Amino acid sequence: MTQRIAFQGEPGAYSHEACHTARPELEALPCSTFEEVIGAVRDGHADLAMLPVENTTYGRVADIHRLLPESGLHIVGESFVRVRICLLANPGTRIEDINAVRAHLVLLPQSAAFLKQHGIKGIPAADSAGAAAKLARLKTPGEGVLASALAGEIYGLDVLARDIEDHGHNTTRFVIMAREPDYAPRGELGMMTSFVFEVRNIPAALYKAMGGFATNGVNMTKLESYMVDGSFTATRFWADIDGHPGDPAVKRALDELGYFTSHLEIMGVYPADRVR
Q: Where is the signal peptide (predicted)?
């Protein structure tokens, strides 16, 4: 039976590229929303989910930290995708023929210098890969799209220019999620552990909760707070650390964390991506 990995977006989206890069042996299943991605795995229509969590330019992906703890899924891997923007057009089109491009709103400002240099107007679209599919279907003269090279391959568009983003650091981090956790030590670069927690309502609770990681020499690579249930007092934290819960230092740090939290949930244990 064919194994599938679900992603949000149209074929050719950067989430699709993440699937193609991290799990090329799996069939990629496009979904309209993050909720549909999660549902596809929970219902057995897909084996894994590829979900973006943060971007070096735009920060946290909206709503994702709320969705993941409620998903019932577990992180089993991570993948980093450099957002390489291509100018795509129908075959036979030259750059000088292009007077307008369509792309997701976040891609247009990232390519502002290139568009200005060539006198090209940017038009926002709901989805860059979807805009590529529409251009291939309608063959609108004088128009191009900004999207991934993968979108060009899928829809038969020519790549007129590559890597046109103003800055070369724009990278999105994805997590790969499954119905069951996998705590087995694996990977060449060590393990990561992600968890969410809520501190008890006592003075300096967060300071005390974090102390165990410092005293045990556990490196925390991420700590973010966000509100839950529409309350200004119920704050949840998402943390990523280097190491495996079975490591003595990590176990001591998590045990100490438990004294100062009202809720603690391991979201996943997975090998560190080599991009780290």
A: none
